[in-house]
Write a structure and sequence with these properties.
By secondary structure, the chain is mainly α. It has one domain: Alpha Horseshoe (Serine Threonine Protein Phosphatase 5, Tetratricopeptide repeat), CATH 1.25.40.340. It is 68% helix and 3% strand. It contains 9 helices and 2 strands; from the N terminus they run E-H-H-H-H-H-E-H-H-H-H. The chain has a two-stranded antiparallel ribbon. It starts with a strand and ends with a helix.
Length: 213
Amino acid sequence: MDKLYVELFQRMFIRGARLIIEKEPYLTEIDSVIGDGDHGTGMKRGCEALEKLFLKEKYAFVDELCYAVSTELIKTMGGASGIIFGTMFFGGISRLSHRDYVDARELSEYFLEGERAIERRGKARPGQKTMLDALYPACVAMESCVARSSDVVLLFKDGYEAAVRGAEDSKLMKSQMGRSKNFKEKTLGFPDPGAVSASLWFQAFYETVSEVR
């Protein structure tokens, strides 16, 4: 698959929203140990709003879809997570052409620019036990993928696998950002909730495109 059409991209977002809603208890559990316990409920609230939006809205262009996703998350999720995950899907919109499909290279650049926007906005970087510890390796893997292939399915496969590894690796890190930094050594052994959420988005994206190949 060398092109991702907007209708399928919207289905990917729907699946991601539903997966995060399903995993809310786990996200809440780990955030209750190393944070303030509201990550899961915030993610669920934003993703429920996305589901409702997509029941009544269909998008003709990829950039309009991603803009709608980002603004809905920022508007409804609340807290730092709303800004961060909204930025994840908004920060790279300039890399998307105003048309009904996107190719693998554009997708890679879109997610990478979103990651860079989060770094700038939050003054964070990978290795500090944040969602970047899943998103950044996913972006690196996708960038490597497009150097050898134009296959969108392979792109999301590589991104998903790298995001999962990154979330798992965050167990070895001590929190250095946000409220969770106050827990210091207590955060060791637990994955960062934001990194887990980022990996869930990539899981849903990959599972959706792999089913229609």
